[in-house]
């Protein structure tokens, strides 16, 4: 099924939020509202991704997307070891063991591409980098529309060069991981509307705006700034179909501020500021996915005890505007408000 992002009935895309927040049910709900739902394949096996695709296909006859994490080269093991020693007292306090060795992790990249080539989906987007030109060409030949996530004009040029059909322009207001193409890159601070203009100056590709879009006015401003659609993540975290935990949902309205930190995964990510970030953020190395695996036992233990002082609580700057209820209704309400 051919897809044009500038022809969506409602120009809203459900952000692919890896780690459980994005569900097949959420993707289908965004589709019912007239937008484009997305699955998050990050952290899943190729089999797990295929299983979620099968669920979405049964739930909607509209196009949908799948997001992939682009694998990174190995990080400095000494930096990871130093951070492990810093975290060890915390692990001992909560009775969990940190992994002493962290092997290579390509997030099942090759197997996922094989699945998506054998059984194509309408849209694939990429985060943390780009496919090779050859990989992009193969998916294009399979009929898949491809979207590259970019945070700078330089990344936008690179995305166009490898054959992306559209760009998701992620501003610094966005919750969760920044989509920088290298883990060590500093996260840009150019606000979303200015970033859209800067990216538009270097590429004619269709642009999707992402980051801090929590109400109709913000959505309308992004569309006026040249985006063909907006991508909503935090705005849907409290919806009925979201996979976010009860503690995460509550913290969105209870905790006052967000910050960008490497504390949990080694990649810059915006989350609700808490004690774990304050204690460890300044010392976390730019090592992804190594730090992600290193802190996984600590994060799991914090989630089990609903400890918002130690959980990773990804959230964008408009987190206090997140609404409850069916995602289909939330998208419809926001679009009505955006249209004035």
Automatic annotation (TrEMBL):
It holds the Pfam family NMO. It catalyses: 3 propionate 3-nitronate + 3 O2 + H2O = 3 3-oxopropanoate + 2 nitrate + nitrite + H2O2 + 3 H(+). Its cofactor is FMN. CDD domains: NPD_like (cd04730). One of its GO terms (biological process) is response to toxic substance. InterPro entries: Aldolase_TIM, NMO. GO terms for molecular function: dioxygenase activity; nitronate monooxygenase activity; nucleotide binding. Keywords: Detoxification, Dioxygenase, Flavoprotein, FMN, Monooxygenase, Nucleotide-binding, Oxidoreductase. It comes from the Bacteria. Nitronate monooxygenase that uses molecular oxygen to catalyze the oxidative denitrification of alkyl nitronates. Acts on propionate 3-nitronate (P3N), the presumed physiological substrate. Probably functions in the detoxification of P3N, a metabolic poison produced by plants and fungi as a defense mechanism. Belongs to the nitronate monooxygenase family. NMO class I subfamily. This is Probable nitronate monooxygenase.
